[in-house]
């Protein structure tokens, strides 16, 4: 059956604004998801579009609807009869709101995305054209108190204006017209006249200079007051900024939000209990409980209205039964009812998601390679792991908070529209939109106040912490009063900033409450009018008041949801970025365990670079026979510790190979290789646990007696027993409660307990005294006996007995041999040894000669050993000098007396040096 013309017109009045508004909001959301909002700023066509003119035209279109409404109100006031039909008035108000939102969006956006706007214009042209035709053939002469030709004229005018807007946009976008100069763009780009004058001079008065563009509009002058007052970026602000930049970068790489969100599917098995039917069933029950709560939110106000109608004799029934039903509904909706049941059901599901994400993140981090851990700070890594909690919280907000509240709002709009008519539906929708719009504007305006308050909070606590931690310094310099005044000033500043923030926060809440109050009053007036006209009952009014109170919570939730989800995504991005990282050092498929025979280690043309640009290790080739002790010496940064890292396969070589008993370590099971290696690092790290557990960490199954034996071998047992709690003493974070020597001896004991086949010592005795070092050297000798050992040392006395000493310089081998050979060669090692054995003669205040000033020994060698080593060095130096003199004489034939004089001078100098050295030896 064909719909009557009046019915079609009534439907158009409702559908037109709803369709336009829905299209604009959905297309705007799509533009955000597809990153069109980010690309718009870089679009060169954006400057051609006359934004100001389009803005004025859009505002004028919105005003035309308001003008029609005003005309109806004026005539109704004059004739004291309301002429407005619900569909007409609601349609005009809705169109005014729809175009008003578009205008406001265009006004506050510097680089708008245009297709939501021109799409709305083209759709509006179709609706306005149809309405103009319908008004022209309307069978009655008037509609809502105005002649129908007025309606047709307004619709035709708007249709023409919308067509002009669309054509203007397309023409200017695709044309070569110069950009429109808006008010802002017409302003001087420089803040001061002298700068503007300089710009005109440099550019012949035609355009601002590059310097002007840099320092003018949209920027802050370096010497301006704003720049001076701008606070330093706080740590949490830096992390949030870096998170936003990382998020935007990933979004641009993915192309749109849809592709980006799909990246999170890697976390889906930890969010949803895949394979766990019990937890999945619980999730279904949680969804059902949320729907029950939505129904209760509707039934409770309705039941209250029924009770009021019965008490007011407008409805028949037993009030006691209705009150009992109301009580049951309230109980079900309370924390003791459906909410309690939902929490009990949801509790395991919530903890599954959170714990699974954190556990998976921690497991993944432990399996990443050294290149990741060496490049990441501990705080950033922990924040990434905690991103699991953030993702769990975000899912909870969206799935179990946002969706039920959306359902509540939809039910409210539909039910109130059916109960009180379209006016009430419009009031509810417009109140919600205004509330959210006001919240977004005002909360955004609080950023600066919030930033100042947080900055003052950090300053106050920083002064408090530094004052307490540095109490000894404060007391030593008698600055107690100064620190007290600094902290008091910081407290006053923080209080003042907090007052400003709270005042703005209270103002925001007050304005939001006014919006809700305006909506409530409008709905109340409408309800009272309908009650007086017999279209509603007093119970309906009670229901409206009660139901309206329940809408406040969802609106407040949605006003802050966007910021919460945005922050959650920034934190979740850390976790997502980390979960997509892959370890660079892995066990190859089919790798076999290390078949250990004698411990022969071969470095064959090994090259390595940390950044794939500069090689740290260059063509390193040497062989360590089984049971040998190989020592690496050289300047800091030469690559010694890197060699040990390559042997432990913390990094893979760039080229060449490392073999253990003829097996390339890249072809060996990684756990098998590292299980054969025991290491003592230069800076050992202990866990915040007992000494016993820290040492047993090397071999979890070791007995207490085995731990005690290892500690005795490392000369640390007696020291541990002197502690109050003995082996149960907790060492603090990173072993901070132990001295440097104690820390290293515990690390040595841990290596001894592991009983490895290959030993790696990286400055293992750098932080112990001489007496303790000799004891540890004896222990290390027993540990290394029969095992291939690699030692890095700067104290050369600790590696004198090494089978082979390799001098490393700039990633290459400078020289190699045992101690005696290297001393006799007079090369780099001999030079290093001489510097450690000798202390240069002290110059007295009167400037006496070096030969008359006693030399002392700064090394920790025994005196007899030191004297022998000094003799070796003098002999090596004398031989090297003689060789140089002979070469010099052979190459300088014919130079005569001057050469002879120089040679004689060298001999005399050598003689003086020898005499001085002999004298020093006699003193020793």
TrEMBL record:
Entry GO MF terms: ABC-type transporter activity; ATP binding; ATP hydrolysis activity
Membrane topology according to the record: Multi-pass membrane protein
Location of the ABC transporter domain: 601-835
Pfam families: ABC_membrane (PF00664), ABC_tran (PF00005)
Skewed-composition ranges (Polar residues): 202-224, 883-902
InterPro entries: AAA+_ATPase, ABC1_TM_dom, ABC1_TM_sf, ABC_transporter-like_ATP-bd, ABC_transporter-like_CS, P-loop_NTPase, Type_1_exporter
Coiled-coil residue spans: none
Listed SMART domains: AAA (SM00382)
Xref: PROSITE patterns: ABC_TM1F, ABC_TRANSPORTER_1, ABC_TRANSPORTER_2
Gene Ontology terms: cellular component: membrane
Region Disordered, residue ranges: 193-235, 880-924
Family affiliation: Belongs to the ABC transporter superfamily. ABCB family. Heavy Metal importer (TC 3.A.1.210) subfamily.
PANTHER family: ATP-BINDING CASSETTE SUB-FAMILY B, MITOCHONDRIAL POTASSIUM CHANNEL ATP-BINDING SUBUNIT
Protein name: ABC transporter domain-containing protein
Species, as recorded: Lomentospora prolificans
